[in-house]
Amino acid sequence: MNRFFLTTAFSLATAAAQAHPGTGHAHGIAAGLYHPLGGLDHVLAMAAVGLLGYLLGGCFRWLLPAAFLGMMVLGGAVSVSGITLPAVEAAIVLSVIIIGALILIAPNVPGSVALAMTGFFAVFHGHAHVAEMPLDGSATSYALGFVLTSALLHAAGAALGAGVAAIGGSPLVRLTGGAVTGLGLGILAGLI
User: Fold this and answer.
1) Cα-atom radius of gyration of the chain, to the nearest Å?
2) How far is it, in rounded angstroms, from Cα 51 to Cα 111?
3) How far apart are CA 35 and CA 129, in angstroms?
4) H or E element in which residue 117 lies
5) Are 20 and 38 within 8 A, CB to CB?
6) pLDDT tens, position by position, 83-107
């Protein structure tokens, strides 16, 4: 079982560090499935949402990821409507830093604050996903793809939290948030 969690952690850590390298010739659902995996910032933020939900426990284990997915779809709809949001990439990197920090201080974070922060940042993630959608694919299929992959990344983050907790308890899980924040700062500084 610990091998699964280590494999998950290494898989998350080795995602491409380029912001959004594109989807090549993928279209529709394939492009949507791939897009969240194309940038370390997206992978870290979405896994961190699952990890934070795991730490907060109770209804937040499913509510945080569900709210993120819903608000991400809303952000995609904003993009489809032609409305541009300011500083989308900066907001996505800030989501990594801030959600990582929330994990680090998780016992002191009200669930409502975590919910508001993740929902806010999800809008930017959804906007970015749709803004980079291939023009010759189905928008519905593409959206289904990026929502499914995002949900799987949330689940991977929660599974990682459970695995790390089994090894070192809740304090070690919270330190994982510090690592996420550190990686976000590295992305922000252009080091990663």
Assistant:
1) 16
2) 13
3) 7
4) helix 111-131
5) yes
6) 999 999 999 999 999 999 999 998 8
Domain ranges of the chain: 28-188
Residue 69, classified by CB atoms within 10 Å of its CB into exposed (0-12), middle (13-18) or buried (19+), is buried
Amino acid 10 reads: F
**62: number of Cβ within 10 Å:** 12
Task: Write out the two tokens for 26.
Answer: 């993928």
Q: Within 13 A of 154's CA, how many CA atoms are on the CB side?
A: 21
d(CA 30, CA 188): 29
Burial of 6 (0-12, 13-18, 19+ CB in 10 A): middle
* CA diameter of the chain: 48
Instruction: Let me know: does 119 contact 68? Beta carbons within 8 Å.
Output: yes
Phi then psi for 58, rounded to 5 degrees? 55, -140
Residue 119 clears pLDDT 70, i.e. is over it? yes
User: Which residue, 160, 165, 152, is CA-closest to 180?
Assistant: 160
